[in-house]
Design a protein that fits this description.
- The longest helix has 29 residues, at 97-125.
- This protein has helices at 13-24, 40-45, 60-74, 97-125, 146-166, 200-211, 218-230, 244-261, 263-270, and strands spanning 4-7, 28-33, 50-54, 79-82, 88-89, 128-133, 171-178, 191-192, 237-240.
- The radius of gyration is 20 Å and the shape is globular.
- α1 links the parallel β1 and β2.
- The strands form two sheets. A seven-stranded parallel sheet has the order 3-2-1-4-6-7-9, with helices on both faces. It has a two-stranded parallel sheet with strand order 5-8.
- It has two domains: 4-242, 3-Layer(aba) Sandwich (Rossmann fold); 245-278.
- The protein is 48% helix and 15% strand.
- By secondary structure, the protein is α/β, with parallel strands linked by helices.
């Protein structure tokens, strides 16, 4: 059956690919962007099934209005994709308070506002699917991206709690964790802190690491997303990109090895008189 979608950040990148994939198979999509002109092509291609909305997700009141209007225009929402966001580049010492607040405001409070607005309608209908676009950066953390990682880790924690809260009422939550893709994430849409010379070598190493990865195709990711939202039992977490599983596996192997190395300390920290059972 055709689905009704709300997708934030459909001006380019993943959001545009997700919207096109849904529209091309006959679904209805309400898409948002800060600049409505960036959605003109989608309107022209799909005038009967694409509804554009201007939205800056940091404006919670506007997010609530857009969700309400999208529900009216489409007749309810089956899938909400919180895709709008950006990456902030900067070493932790280089971050200003404003840098971190802005990153969290967009990447955490924005999805929270949209999700909060969409849930009442989903609860009434007893069904729905919230899709949070995270990253392998929501699982591990790398140099020069501390603010971005902080936002994605927070989004993942909120979303995992949400999934436990709404599962019994028929609402699914999926956290999508892409690896490197051919989007503008590290380009003009990114923000950067004022650099300190001491971190120049770190920045060069980080850029070289990103450059060594083969970027994925957002259109292929969009087809994967269709399969996820069509599943009767969608995953809470799903990795996208051929390199992502190996990267994440390495992250967890290193964590487990370090926890095991220091496990003796965990038992001692319980207290000498405590009965500790594994």
């Amino acid at each position: 059956m055709a689905k009704n979608w709300l997708i934030t950040g459909t001006s380019r990148g993943f959001g545009r690919a997700f919207a096109l994939a849904a529209l091309e198979r006959g679904d209805q999509v309400a898409g948002t962007a800060r600049d409505l002109a960036t959605l003109d092509e989608l309107v022209a291609q799909h005038p009967d099934t694409f509804v554009p909305f201007r939205l800056d997700v940091t404006d919670a009141d506007a997010a609530a209005r857009v969700v309400r209007d999208a529900e009216v225009r489409l007749g309810g929402l089956d899938v909400v994709v919180n895709n709008a966001g950006y990456g902030h580049f900067g070493a932790v010492e280089e971050l200003s308070d404003a840098d971190l607040r802005d990153q969290l405001q967009t990447n955490v409070f924005g999805p929270l506002a949209v999700t909060r607005a969409a849930l009442p309608g989903m609860r009434r209908r007893g069904r729905g699917h919230i899709v949070q676009i995270s990253s392998i950066g929501g699982v591990g953390a790398f140099a020069n991206l501390g603010a971005y990682h902080a936002s994605k880790w927070a989004l993942e924690a909120l979303s995992e709690s949400l999934s436990a809260e709404v599962a019994r009422i028929g609402v699914h939550v999926t956290i999508v964790e892409p690896g490197g893709y051919d989007t503008d994430w590290a380009g003009s849409s990114a923000r950067r802190s004022d650099p300190l010379e001491a971190y120049d070598p770190m920045r060069q190493e980080a850029a070289a690491r990103r450059g060594a990865q083969a970027p994925g195709d957002p259109a292929a990711a969009a087809q994967a997303l269709l399969e996820i939202v069509d599943s009767p039992e969608p995953p809470l977490r799903v990795l996208l990109g051929a390199q992502a599983p190996g990267i994440v596996r390495g992250i967890y192997e290193r964590r487990l090895a370090q926890w095991q190395k220091w496990e003796h300390l965990a038992a001692r920290a319980q207290g000498a008189e405590q009965d500790v059972r594994s």
